[in-house]
Amino acid sequence: MLRMNRLGTVTPKTMRALERDERGYPIPFIVLRDKFGTPQFTINDHARVSSCVNKKLCAICGRRLNAGFWFVGGSRCFLHTNGAFLDPPTHLECAEYALKVCPFLAARTYTKRIDDAKLKPGGLPRGMGLIREESMQPELPERFGLGHTSGYIETDRRFNVRHWNYLEFWRRGEPIHAPDSETVKDLIRV
Fold first, then answer.
1. Are 33 and 39 in contact (CB under 8 A)?
2. 6 Cβ partners below 8 Å, 6+ apart?
3. Is the pTM of this model over 0.85?
4. Which residues pair with 86 in a beta bridge?
5. Model confidence over 160-175: pLDDT tens digits?
6. Which of 28, 57, 109, 154 is the most exposed place for a label (fewest CB within 10 A)?
7. Is residue 164 part of a domain?
8. How many structural domains compose the chain?
9. Residue 7 domain-assigned?
């Protein structure tokens, strides 16, 4: 049976077994669940992030990655000298689904805070602490990138990419199709 979200986008086969939140959105593999069981979409579960790195798993569906690595991020991630991402790589179909459906990545306007504001006091699972990422921009980026690479380096809770095999940009849930006169650097210019 095909599962669709409220926007009519078919959920990729790799993501169909994921649990869903009360709105019907799949809960990505790396999302932290607080001690009450509530998914905290703006907080990564670092134990699961480590599993993604050590076992080469997709950050969204949690299944094995086989054909290179796809990264999604704001244009600043792609502009960084070493390509700096906070989330591990994904499958292409998982990344494209997220770019079409995720409220943060796809909504025409997104006004909610991108931090731990929804975490109830005392909600962190036992033995867990928060690491705040100061480099993340608080406002919604104008565009998001989707890039494919053959390899990356993990350093200090970041994923660094130095070479892209493929790169495209998205805005409001759709790929940006640049006129021939625009270059990739024009698209990622903030």
1. yes
2. 23, 24
3. no
4. none
5. 898 889 989 998 889 9
6. 109
7. yes
8. 1
9. no
